[in-house]
Amino acid sequence: MNSLPPRVHIHEEGPREGFQIERGPIPTAQKIRLVDALAETGLADIQVTSFVHPGKVPGMADAEAVVAGITPRPGVRFTALWLNQRGLERAIATGRLHLEGKLTLYGSDAFLKRNQNRDPEAQRAAQPELIAMYQAHDIPVRTGFVTAAFGCNFEGDVPAERVVRLVDEMRAIARDHGEELSLVGLGDTMAWATPERIRRVVGAVQDANPDVALSLHLHDTRGLGLANAYAGLQMGVAHFDAAVAGLGGCPFAAHAGAAGNICTEDFAFMCAEMGIETGIDLEKLIACAVLAEEIVGHPLPGKVKTGGSLAALRARLG
Amino acid sequence: MNSLPPRVHIHEEGPREGFQIERGPIPTAQKIRLVDALAETGLADIQVTSFVHPGKVPGMADAEAVVAGITPRPGVRFTALWLNQRGLERAIATGRLHLEGKLTLYGSDAFLKRNQNRDPEAQRAAQPELIAMYQAHDIPVRTGFVTAAFGCNFEGDVPAERVVRLVDEMRAIARDHGEELSLVGLGDTMAWATPERIRRVVGAVQDANPDVALSLHLHDTRGLGLANAYAGLQMGVAHFDAAVAGLGGCPFAAHAGAAGNICTEDFAFMCAEMGIETGIDLEKLIACAVLAEEIVGHPLPGKVKTGGSLAALRARLG
User: Fold this and answer.
1) Relative to the CA of B32, which of A94, A147, B143, B199 has its CA 20 to 30 Å away?
2) What is the ipTM of this complex?
3) Of residues A154, A195, A220, nearest to B230 (C-beta)
4) Cβ of B270 and A224 within 8 Å?
5) Domains of chain A (ranges plus CATH)?
């Protein structure tokens, strides 16, 4: 307990998760500008776009153009999201993305039904097909993800034991098909987590899987995002998804107040001030947050971009 | 460690701290409406106004009218702020307020100079005068407060040992003048705290003062408010200041991004979901947050008022 990790790895999801939910069309050049700026902050993993049906998510119709426009940079992996074979093939075709396979099970049957129109059996059955798809393209499958791992607006609380069972199932499916998961992500898709729940669920999954790293994907819909992240850090979790300036939100959560992920610069600030290495230049990241706000044209929820970093204040005080 | 308190006591400061900072004049009737609504939520302590110079803080010129207009309610203590004898006399004259004396020292000499134009010696010397003033009116002095207990925009980091010394000094001053402090508040006036710093400073003050309860006053300027509050809860802290909807901010912090206190309903939500008793009807409190936003006429930072409580969702799910 209270064993903060010496270093955290942040997967920046702002450009994908953020621009997907914005009402107005965001010019492709602006998306590229933000991604290029993010790539100069020290962030090692940046999810730049989503290869989804342009008819369904018009804001992502320029996925190829975004990827073609960004500037490669040593040490930076550009990642993307896809939901099916067609999407993956589009991502592969760019030739410029870091590609990894991921398995996904759901903590909530009701949300799975609503989101994918599938029952849990069908979702499990789909995973070997995913593995086969990745193997056909020589793409490693190292990550498993549990959506709605803490609770669901359509089903209620998700018990820790269910999450442990789902992780078990995912690892077994992977192993049965020649893959070994080394990272398991827990998604608080609809913001049901509290710090104590994070400790409980993370602890249960860690106890059953001491050989696997955990990652947290925390939405800030009810304001507990950073408190939950801190609870995760206390449990030694070292992988976090985050979105610059707090861009984004989940359109499928069918929830008026659904907010984005935890804000990257606020989280990075908290980590840095607690002595946890992030590899990030916070002042550059704050500049990206200001840029993101300029690009979307409305206030974004991150606080440090307004409040300022303490390192900057200390430097001024000498 | 990780000994959450079974119950927390929240001192609601929204009406005072919030309306003080708003640009436009807030009609007195609206202030009264919000206070009366807050008094029905189960909140036991509500700071309703500030008896300060009407020329300096025009938004508080209606302090007497606000106090005269609110409806007394059993179990609810209406409190107020004052900065000098004149203010205290105005508060006493209302005959409707719960009055308590408070001593204050500063974690930062630079901020004390800026805020009060005093050096630390003069600030210490002023405390016995305060005690005499309270004693002359039969008002108990039980609380000590350390302003800027975690850091200062004008001076930098504040070491835990300094805070321990200031608490020592305040307790000694009180004792030397026939009073005994039973509650010590630590103010993160300019948002320098992180969860780890909260644990360190709170732990140091607790170790030196096992017979005194602690209270936290946390500004959310850098987004860590609730994470810091959680760290305080883990240390057993059971007294918190908060502002409904996240109203407010400190005009004297001379900081563009200065945000208000932690948001009452977000904090109460976090506590309730972790099994900590607050005495608050969360749905009624959320309605107050919506009302506060209506009254000020612009978005306020609280999240649960948009995201909704989980208790409401659970009730709907049956």
Assistant:
1) B143
2) 0.95
3) A195
4) yes
5) 1-99+243-318 (3.20.20.70), 100-234 (3.20.20.70)
